[in-house]
Write a structure and sequence with these properties.
CATH superfamily: GAF domain
Number of helices: 6
Structural class: alpha+beta
Strand content: 15-25%
Number of domains: 1
Number of strands: 6
Shape: globular
Helix content: 25-40%
Largest sheet: 6 strands, antiparallel
Strand order of the largest sheet: 3-2-1-6-5-4
Distance between the termini: 41 Å
CATH architecture: 2-Layer Sandwich
Radius of gyration: 15 Å
CATH class: Alpha Beta
């Protein structure tokens, strides 16, 4: 099955030839509008040194918690055990679309972990990977109620991840050069 074309609001940002900072800063609110999500953040990961950070975060309203890391940090050694979705991303498995954190299978996510660190009720855990390595996770989410992700939305997100992967990889590599 071919993936749907990106809505112009998203494709125009990606094709704008701006810096990765400008692209991601503009893209997250556009994703939020497209999905009607409450928060959208971009976690970036360097597979060479296992450092990561949430470099970009958009929230719809001030009452939604922000997720952001100023500095690149090592992943806790227990993260793979505590967070099945992060483990799946490291294994280069397909992106995960969670309609309800409260009823999701424990093989898919750790409900306690999600509630403690993120607080969302529904989310997309979109894996940005290249050459079998994890470079980032795009995570739009909903608070307070479940959310069914349509086939169209799933296709758009998968297409979007393909398009932003080289931008994310370049961002991580250039950030690593300055560490």
């Amino acid at each position: 099955m071919t993936q749907p074309e990106l809505p112009s609001a998203l494709s125009n940002i990606i094709e704008s030839s701006q810096t990765p900072d400008a692209i991601f800063s503009a893209l997250l609110p556009a994703i939020g509008d497209f999905l009607q999500s409450d928060r959208c953040f971009l976690y970036l990961h360097n597979p060479q040194n296992n450092l990561g950070r949430v470099a970009f975060c958009w929230i719809r309203t001030p009452d939604v918690p922000t997720v952001y890391n100023e500095k690149w940090e090592a992943q806790p050694p227990t993260l793979v055990d505590d967070d099945p979705m992060f483990a799946a991303a490291l294994r280069a498995e397909p992106s995960i679309f969670v309609e309800d954190v409260e009823t999701a299978d424990s093989q898919v996510l750790n409900q306690e972990f999600e509630q403690k660190y993120f607080g969302h009720r529904a989310l997309i855990h979109a894996h940005i990977r290249q050459d079998g390595q994890l470079w980032g996770i795009l995570q739009p989410c909903i608070f307070g109620h479940p959310r069914v992700w349509t086939e169209y939305e799933r296709g758009v997100i998968n297409n979007l991840v393909e398009k932003i992967t080289p931008i994310a990889v370049d961002y991580v590599k250039s950030a690593s050069d300055s560490l």
